[in-house]
């Protein structure tokens, strides 16, 4: 994916099993868990391209959140703040090759950032 592409959408759910049944039944999404991420079932749309996860609902996560691929989370957060955003979650590693962060735009919307580098 390229800088600026929407890569992922998280949907907050109160009950992971019920969320899986609902979204799988409604849209035909294949929803599976990955080793090490059992509490975060990932969905894939029938187009095989778009996808995301069902994440536990929390006080700070009550609405779906899109994630945008960036070349550098640090640079993107810095620029977002310059443009009036606030950082909701600093850069956090997912694994050795990827990380994520969240900012709140000047209108109150939360947007996630995703950075990945090729393994090797």
UniProtKB/TrEMBL annotation:
Domain VOC: 5-116
Pfam families: Glyoxalase_6
Domain of life per record: Bacteria
Descriptive protein name: VOC domain-containing protein
Native species: Actinotalea fermentans
